[in-house]
Amino acid sequence: VQLQAYGGGLVRARESLRLSCAASGSTFGSGASGWYRQAPGKQRESVALISSGGSTTYADSVKGRFTISRDNAKNTVYLQMDGLKPDDTAVYYCYGYLRLGARSGYYWGQGTLVTVSS
């Protein structure tokens, strides 16, 4: 059972990336899913979340540039990042509520590094 985050990389400012967070061995449950990020020397911060009902919430710093979505058929949560800025450079972590019977709960994926050059 795991969440696998991928899609990070090195891009230039104003370019785009799409991060994916895929659940294997389980399915997303009734809780929220989302993305955090942690830049060097900074605390981890919430970037975006999507509720089980599809409502979305974004950090002020990414509103209008990032879009979170979920494909239940593929057990995957996405983070489309447009208009990237150097300040978006960070390791991005996904999380989600997984259905695992008695072990149901929130799980984290490993981080994926996003580097934005100016």
Please describe the topology of this protein.
Layout: E1 2-6, E2 9-12, E3 17-24, E4 27-38, E5 45-50, E6 56-58, E7 66-71, E8 76-81, E9 90-99, E10 105-108, E11 112-117
Parallel strand pairs: 2-11
Antiparallel strand pairs: 1-3, 3-8, 4-5, 4-9, 5-6, 7-8, 9-10, 9-11
Report the sheet with the most strands, covering strand number, pairing sense and barrel closure: 7 strands, mixed
Roughly how many Å apart are the termini?
38 Å
Mean pLDDT: 94
Poorly predicted segments: none
| SS summary, helix count | 0
Helix content: under 10%
Q: Structural class of the helix and strand makeup?
A: mainly beta
Quantity of strands, as a count: 11
Please state roughly what percent of the residues sit in beta strands, choosing from under 5%, 5-15%, 15-25%, 25-35%, 35-45% or over 45%. Answer: over 45%
Element string (H = helix, E = strand)? EEEEEEEEEEE
